[in-house]
Structure formats: structure tokens, C-alpha cells
Amino acid sequence: MKCRLFGCKKFRRLSSEQADRTLSRSEDRFLLKHRSVCSECTRAEVSSTYALNMLRMAALEPEIAPMFEDRVIRKLKVQQVRESLNYWSPALVGAGIACGVIFVTLHLATSPGQTRRAELPAAQSRQDVQTRIVPKLELDHPPVLR
Amino acid sequence: MTYTIGAEAAAQERQWVGRCRSGDETALGCLIARHRNRLIRTATNLLRDRHEAEDVAQEAFLKAFREIAKLRDDRAFSGYLYRICVRLCMDRLRLKRAELVEFDSAQPHCGGHVENRVVIEKLLSQLPAELRTTLVLREMEQLSYEEVAEVMQVPIGTVRSRLHTARERFRKLWIEAVGE
């Protein structure tokens, strides 16, 4: 629908604005005058009013689910926990890795070393020496010299 | 219907916001109870989907509470929350593809409420997110130009021109859909 008469654009603008503000006298007069000469704009105005009324009538009323507040608060708590986990997780992972490394290092430094020492030839010889029969010196019963 | 609240309610709200910062759950509940209806109604009218509207309202609350520590002025909470909600709705509207629906011109002109509602939903879905939001906030939510401008964070002149364009486009779509 094209505006053919002079002032149709202004009419459409004022017609839209009259729903939101009080028009001045001159603006009112302009609308009246234009309505009497432009049937196309008058029809457009009527259809616009009708369409907008329909739009207002189509407004929906909200349906609020029960326990809405509780759900929001619960979600907020979950979110806070998740955020704090996200914040601390790199530090926790780092600490875990460090602990693991220290544990493994200590383990390697202690237990395998003992085994190896025991398996050394010198250690074996020491063991042999220990098992050798040592002559006893029986001081409690000194030999009687005749 | 406006989204501004009275002085007494504003003072009470300021207290609740302060208590929320220190993690008071009762204050959180009070703030949610105060704003949920308005938020869900606006989201419902913008998105035309009750379930999606509830999701958006929840998301808006979560976002607002997460950022509550950064809020400089406690009095601004109400507007801040509403702005988040409208913004989230607009994001969703932008994501949705405008469905091109061909209307039968022989469709009854003065059908029942439900038919009109369906037609209007289809017409609204053909409007760009900015125009649709402006139109709904003004016509359905009855917000003033200033309030629409504040919520959408645009100048009043932009609201005025968008509203004019939206009304004109809506009228044309209406005529195409149901005939004059």
C-alpha cells in the first residue's frame, strides 16, 4: 500500500504516536483533515488499531511452576559449587601430580636400593662370613691345665 | 504495567540485595518471589512459549545473582534483572528462524481467541527480534518509551522509530494474514 497523497507519511507517524502521547491541536487538525481526503490512510489506521487490539488481547498470562524459588536457589548452589571446583581444579590437579611424583620418588629411593645392596657380591660375602662357624671362647669354663 | 517499584518496596529490595551478597537464602527467595511473575510474563509474551519463558526467567535470576556482587547500586537490581531477561529473550529470538508461514486468506476473520492467538504468534515470529521486543514491551507489557529504552539500552528516538516500524509491519502482516 503506497502513500500517494502529500502528508501520508506524516499521517502514519502521527497516527501511530497518538496511542502513546497527546497530540497537539495542529497535529489533531492535520489528522482530521487527512482522514477526510485519504481513504487509504483511514483504512490503514483502522486496520492498524484492530491489529494492535488483537495483539494486546493475545497477551499470555504466566504459569508459574510450583517450587520455582527452590529450584532457582538449588541451581544457584550447584552453579556456585561447580564454579569453585572449576576455579580450584587446576591447583588440585597440580597438587595431586606433585604428591604422586614425591611418593614415587621416595618409593624408588628407599625400597629398590635395599634390595640391590643385598644382592651385591660384597653383601653376599658378608653373609657368608656371618654364617661361618666362629670358634667359641669358653671363658666360663677355662681349660684346666695339668 | 511498569517495572518500576514504589519507594518502600525499593528500600526493602535494597536490604534483600545486601543480604543476598552475604549469601542469605531467605533474601534470595524474597527477591525471586517478587520478580518472578513479571519476568515470566514478559518472557512468555516475547517468546510465546511458557516452558521456554520459565527457563529464561531462571537463567536471568541465576545470572543476576551471580553478578550481584558487581552491582554498584542496589536500587538498580530490578532494572538489571529485567534487562537480563529481555536480552536473553532477544538472543533466543535471534536464534530461532523466522518461519515463513503462508496464510490462507479465507481464514475466518473473527475467529476465536485461540485462532487469533495462533495468527498473532505467527505474525510476531516474522518480525525481527528488535522490532518484536519493542512492540511486545510497549503494547503487551505497557512499558513507557523511557522504560523500553532503558531495558533495551537504546535511545528513546530509536524506540520511537522502531515502534513505528514495528506497528506498520505488523499491520501489513495482519492484513496479509486475515484480509482487511
Binned strand content of chain B: under 5%
Largest sheet of chain A: none
Number of strands of chain A: 0
Give helix and strand order of chain B, one letter per element, not per position: HHHHHHHH
Number of strands of chain B: 0
Shape of chain B: elongated
Structural class of chain B: mainly alpha
List the defining traits of the structure above.
heterodimer, A: 146 residues, mainly alpha, 5 helices, B: 180 residues, 8 helices
Structure description:
Chain A has five helices and no strands. Chain A has helices at residues 8-17, 25-37, 39-57, 68-119, 121-131. Chain B is 72% helix and 0% strand. Classes of the chains: A mainly alpha (146), B mainly alpha (180). Chains A and B meet through helix 1, helix 3 and helix 4 of A and helix 2, helix 3, helix 5, helix 6 and helix 8 of B.
Tell me briefly what this model is.
Chain A has 146 residues and is mostly helical.
Secondary structure layout:
The complex is a heterodimer of chains A (146) and B (180).
Chain A: H1 8-17, H2 25-37, H3 39-57, H4 68-119, H5 121-131
Helix pairs in contact in A: 1-2
Chain B: H1 7-21, H2 25-47, H3 50-66, H4 77-95, H5 113-125, H6 129-140, H7 145-152, H8 156-178
